[in-house]
Amino acid sequence: xxxxxxxxxxxxxxxxxxxxxxxxxxxxxxxxxxxxxxxxxxxxxxxxxxxxxxxxxxxxxxxxxxxxxxxxxxxxxxxxxxxxxxxxxxxxxxxxxxxxxxxxxxxxxxxxxxxxxxxxxxxxxxxxxxxxxxxxxxxxxxxxxxxxxxxxxxxxxxxxxxxxxxxxxxxxxxxxxxxxxxxxxxxxxxx
Length: 191
Ligand code: ADP
Ligand code: 5GP
Description:
Strand 5 (68-74) and strand 6 (77-82) form a beta hairpin. The protein is 41% helix and 21% strand. The chain has a 5-stranded parallel β-sheet with strand order 2-7-1-8-9, with helices on both faces. It is globular, with a radius of gyration of 16 Å. It has helices spanning 16-26, 56-64, 83-91, 102-110, 127-135, 140-155, 169-184, and strands at 5-9, 30-32, 36-37, 52-53, 68-74, 77-82, 95-99, 115-121, 162-165. The chain is an alpha/beta fold. It binds adenosine-5'-diphosphate and guanosine-5'-monophosphate (5GP). Adenosine-5'-diphosphate binds next to helix 1 and helix 5.
């Protein structure tokens, strides 16, 4: 089976992390790329597992060295995918999931790397606030900022190969798993 890169995006609080956890349980040989960020770790997050937590200076240095496949500023912090995270997994024969925001997804599309692009959408206009508040990891100001970004992100959903509405976790996870399995069973473009 050919290895592929899956870009999974969607507004904050839509349930990307939740659905990706289900996906990784069900599809062997699929691995999540660990991103770099300058934001502070949340309670329970571990360096190297959830993110590579970098200082702004380290992030800029690695950017100058060309270490990032893509990077973006989101809500005042830097986020980026390290090329090494993706390359070593592909070289080992694994497919890779990138959980990134919309600007990063656009950069991956513009790069040489072939990817399958999946947008996770909310079932209605109020669920993002409810889910972010329910998650309890962000201040009221941070939630407002994330919801502002979400408006632009939702406007970009037409640019994606697939859209999954996260109405109910088990239903949406089943749909996502189906898309990934079907893409993995398909030969890469051009062959
Ligand atoms: P993201 O990674 O997109 O920011 P999370 O996966 O952290 O989102 O989900 C945000 C919150 O919403 C979490 O508390 C999660 O348990 C909850 N959640 C995720 N999917 C659903 C769903 N389909 N219905 C209700 N709550 C959900
Ligand atoms: P959070 O702070 O909630 O962990 O992430 C905020 C946003 O940054 C989310 O939309 C998440 O998908 C995105 N993100 C995480 N890692 C990366 C990355 O490496 N690159 C880009 N462009 N976005 C990322």
